[in-house]
Amino acid sequence: MAVTLDQTIAQKQHTVLSRILSSQTFWVVIAVILACLFLSFATDAFATQKNLYNITRNITFVAIVALGMTFVIITGGIDLSVGSVLCLCSMVLAVTMHAGYSIEVGILATIVTALAIGAFNGVLIAYLGFPPFVVTLGMLSVARSLAMVASNNTVVFQFGPDHDKLLSLGGGAWLFGIANPVLYMIILALITGFILRWTKFGRHIFAIGGNEHAATLTGVPVRQIKVAVYMISALSAGLAGIIETGWLGAVTTNIGTGMELQVIAATVIGGANLAGGVGTAFGAIVGAALIEVIRNSLGLLGINAFWQGTFIGGAILLAVLFDRIRNFRRSD
C-alpha cells in the first residue's frame, strides 16, 4: 500500500513538472529573467530604479489591453481595433473634461463609448456572421476617424477643473511608490485570471474556443458570450486609454497607432493560441513584459530602434513554433 501511495505521489509530481516544462508561458518567463540578467551586466543603465520604473509602467498599457484581447483570442476571434478604440476613448475623455465636465463624467462617457463599440463589433460577428478580422479592421479605421472628428485633429492637453485629478490618476504612485498603472494592471490581471479560471463564463469561453459547435450543442450561449468578449476587449482598451491619458497629460490622434499588433504579439507570445481554446491572464502580462524588455534593451545596447519589429516578429514566430511542436508531441 505504501509503495502504491509513493508511486501515486511521484506520478503527480512528474505530471506537474511536465505541465510546467511544456508551458509556453514558463519559457517566456525564463526568457524575460535571462534577458534582464544579461542587460543588468551588459549595461549600467538597465537595473537603475528609474529605468525599471519606466519599464514596469510601459508594460501596463499593452498588458491591460492584452488582458481583454485574451478573452477574444480564446474564443478563436481577433480584435484589430483596440489601438484605435484606445485613441477614441482617450479623446472622448479629454474632450469631455476639456468642456468643463468632471472626471467622473469623462470616465463614464469613455466607458460607455468603449462598451458601445465592443457591442457593435460583437453583434456583427456573433449574430450577423461577419468575420472578426473584417469587422475589427473596419472599426480600426472608423474609431480613429471619429477621434479626429471629436478633436478636430488637434492636441488636447487641458482637462478642465479636474485636470490635476486625471494626471494623478494616471501618473501618480499612491501605494508604496508603485506607479498607479502597475497597480491597475495587477488588479485587472487578478480579475481576469479569476474569471477565466473559476467562473462559468470563463469555462464557456474556453468551450467556444475549443469547439464552438460542441459548445452550442451543450447549451452554451455562444452568441451572447461572443458579444461579451468583444465588449470586454473594447473596455480594456478604454481603461488603458483613461490611464494613458493621465500619464501623458495630453492626447493626440496618433495615440495607440499600431498598438493592436503589440497586443496580439503579447498575447500570442504569452501562450494564447490564435486558433482558440488557450490563453491566460498571466501569459498576457509576461508577453507584454518580454516585448517591453526587447524594446528597452535595443536603446541601451545601442541597436537601431528599427530592429524592434524584427525582434518582436521573431519572438512571435518562436512562440507559434513552440506551440506547433507541443501539439505534435501530444498527437504522438
TrEMBL record:
Cell inner membrane listed as a keyword: yes
Entry-linked InterPro entries: ABC_transp_permease
Principal place of residence: membrane
Keyword Translocase: no
Localization per record: Cell membrane
Keywords: Cell inner membrane, Cell membrane, Membrane, Transmembrane, Transmembrane helix, Transport
Topology in the lipid bilayer: Multi-pass membrane protein
Chain ranges passing through the membrane: 26-47, 59-76, 82-101, 108-130, 173-196, 227-251, 263-291, 298-322
Organism domain of life: Bacteria
Name of the molecule in the record: ABC transporter permease
Organism: Mesorhizobium dulcispinae
